[in-house]
Design a protein that fits this description.
- There is one protein chain.
- The protein contains nine helices and six strands, in the order βααββααβααααββα.
- It has 240 residues and is α+β, with helices and mostly antiparallel strands.
- The strands form two sheets. Strands 2-1-5-6 form a four-stranded mixed beta sheet. Strands 3-4 form a two-stranded antiparallel sheet.
- The protein is 48% helix and 11% strand.
- This is DSBA-like thioredoxin domain-containing protein.
- InterPro entries: DSBA-like_thioredoxin_dom, Thioredoxin-like_sf.
- Pfam families: DSBA.
- GO terms for molecular function: oxidoreductase activity.
């Protein structure tokens, strides 16, 4: 989805980026939410375009303390192949555009739930396995593991990259701005025509309680428009 689909009475909008460590930290919340209500993913392109980054010592030294904090707060696993493999691979480029396109391609072929499965697979490949998730070959392999035929995926990727990706990223950022979100991840509860940002910081590492909270459809933060969860900003200049 490029924009909030308000045809459903209830949904959770997940504004994210595949290369945002805090989004990976919140992945169990996404998985738990999917058991309760529809989840719509909106990729924000944190490291797309001019913000794509070559891996180097500066990047490694910047992200590692944040990643260790995320692991401590959420229980999410950051693998050895990530810390001492990918983050030392100076041939790798962190570019959000290809993985976002891959999520949209799988979503086009197999539906919104499969797109979320693809996003989760991309996050695991990056943060646990230390793989280059901006590379076409990696994305194609992950899609095939989800049962997507190789040529169909390649065609869908080309269409998304040529016709949809820029518009999707722009719409995701517009949604983030419209709801008063400050960065990635931002979770927005839709109730009919009403969109409200949820304060999800308290639920990190507590997916079952988060799911119970969503089932009650109460507890939406009404005193502010932003989430207290630690976040990556929209251009990746701050993450923590």
């Amino acid at each position: 989805m490029n924009q909030a689909d308000q045809t459903q009475p209830h949904a959770l909008h997940y504004i994210h980026d595949p290369l945002c460590g805090w989004c990976y930290g919140a992945a169990p919340l996404v998985a738990a939410a999917r058991k309760v209500l529809p989840v719509q993913a909106h990729g924000g392109g944190m490291m797309a375009g001019r913000n794509r980054r070559q891996v180097n010592a500066e990047l490694r030294n910047y992200v590692m303390p944040h990643d260790r904090r995320i692991a401590q707060m959420t229980g999410q696993v950051f693998g050895e192949n990530y810390f001492n493999g990918l983050l030392t691979d100076t041939g790798a480029v962190f570019d959000s555009a290809p993985p976002i396109a891959a999520v949209l391609a799988v979503q086009t072929l197999k539906g919104e739930a499969a797109g979320l499965d693809m996003l989760a697979a991309i996050q695991r490949a990056h943060y646990q396995d230390g793989r280059r998730i901006s590379d076409a070959a990696t994305l194609a392999e992950l899609a095939q593991q989800l049962g997507v035929e190789a040529e169909a995926f390649a065609q869908a990727m080309r269409k998304v990259e040529n016709e949809e990706l820029t518009r999707h990223i722009e719409a995701s950022r517009e949604l983030l701005n419209d709801v008063g979100g400050r960065g990635f991840p931002t979770f927005v509860l839709q109730r009919g025509d009403t969109l409200e940002v949820l304060d999800t910081g308290m639920w990190l590492g507590r997916p079952e309680e988060w799911a119970a909270f969503l089932r009650q459809e109460t507890g939406v933060a009404t005193s502010n428009t932003g989430s207290s969860i630690a976040q990556c900003d929209i251009d990746g200049d701050r993450c923590g």
